[in-house]
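Troubleshooting: if your tokenizer reports a length mismatch, compare your output against this known-good record of 640 residues.
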Amino acid sequence: MNKDFVIENGVLKRYRGNENRVIIPGDVVTISSWAFRKCIHITDVTIPDSVTEICDGAFQESLRLERVNISGRVSKIGGSAFAWCRNLKSVTISPGVMVIGNSAFEHCSSLHHVTLPEGLKEIGDLAFSDCTGLWHINFPDSLTKIGKLAFSGCRNLKLVSKPNCTPMIGENAFKEVPPSVEAALKTAARERYEMPGAWIVRITNLRRHENADRLLCTNILGYHVITDQNCSSGQRMVFFPAGSQLDKEFAEKICSLTGGFLHRKKRKIKPVKIRGEVSEGLLLPIEVMNGYTDIEELRDGDSFSELDGREICSFPIPEQMDIDPINNTLLKYHEGSNCPKTICIPYGIRKIGKSAFMRCKKPVRIIIPETVKNIGDYAFFECTGLRKMVIPGSVDSIGEHAFAGCSALTGVKILDGVKCMDDCAFQNCTLLSYVNVPDSVTSVGFKVFDGCGMLKRVRIKNYKSNPGYIPDYSMLERLENGSGTEYRNVGGVVFNRDISELIRYPASKEDAVYVIPQGVKKIKQYAFSGNEHLTEVTIPDGVTEIEHRAFENCRNLRCITIPPSVAYMGNFVFIGIHTSSNSKQQRISGDVMKASIKSIISVFESYGTAEGILIRGKKGSEAERYAKQNGCAFEEAKEL
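Known-good structure output:
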């Protein structure tokens, strides 16, 4: 009865009836949020063709609802629309629905059958989460996205048929679901997402192979390639990267030309090691393909899989790789027991996803092709087998911690075109000794090379620290001078551009005595922090300010000369300096849980003083004031 419905301008605001079977009136266009929420009487709902929208939470917690028919004019089922309808057994969704919202059917534990219509593009996060009775479902060809945890907890779920869709699958979308479901979707994606296996290239930058007179080396599309001496600069050739799968007849036709690059049984191009160097693809003269008329229409950089209507080659996605074919993203590489030492990321992948190779221990080399635009956060985190990396110029950004913890990495070549290195990108790469950074890099994050003890120099033309933050010392200690940078490196010590501020004296610098150069006016916060080699520092006349904690933890510093020009000394300038065992200063050690509150307080108080260090300066100066206030020895320096 219409009096049971509150309808305003085609919007059903609320149902007030007590009927079991409800037929929504034909003049309703929108079912508003919470319209049927906690309606404990209804068991069956018919939604007419007039309805175009079911809003968030429309039928949430209608505990006796068993059956729902959704009309074809509805394009989206709102978030939590039927969540916690625990008695809901079947849902019929007519073609036209394109989106099932987040948590739309979450905790519908009696739901056993859902027919998803052709045309559906997206299943939201948690959409069918904890539908423990769900066993019968289909995935239409049109489906492009399955959200995070979408089917998590659906322990009895199975596919009714082999899927033909290639959706992007969110994190833990099939958590606690029989593995066959996710595996079937991924297999379908790999089968339908075959990349072209060959490219037309023009050879440039040939160079003689170091170990063989008849071989020349070059880089093709980001792959290291060795070819024979008949190849000449400017020549057009066909390139097959490692991993390309060749057609049987074509493979037989060119077998004599491949020189060991072609795996005879699998007809797949394989990496070949030639006198210490690995060639990661095969180059053939374009004349080899002259039997195919379509080859004449291809230009430099074009790719192909078929010629004259028949397949020649393809690049099937390896089983170890989970990919998002919609966005050309490599989501995850599963290392497994048969992981090769060299991994070729397929040409055509545009993004290496977050944590994609995280903690893969076996790969020694991972080849990144020139199609990759972004390397995600933690992409190669703690890949402890990696030894060298080449980052192609196509990459816009190297994500946070992307190569952090790659403890065997010795060299990184970043090609011109890369724009950004995010925070901690190469942190704790302890053997890293060589990095080239092109002038194209304009954004550098914090602690990019922190913990890279073997890396002594990095040249970044356009390096600038983040405004308002303490500069990244891990970068400054290694920074070579570039015309665009705001810093200068003088004898391994970092100053600002006009050498008026001393910014960083490296903790690893081993000199015992240091005389700050003339012209410096300010010693910045933490400037000498952590250097345990210095015993004496002389500050020249003209310096006016020594900032907080400038000499923090310089444990062996015994004497410092401070001129009368210094008008300001910050707090805790010499904090953490420890002298002899007779000094009142103490190290914080031992079992503090057993120490008395009084002794703990005294330790912290002494830690903040600078007893034992000799400050040399003029009487009545800021240096004398600071020495007296902090219990330091003071000596007048007449030569100042």
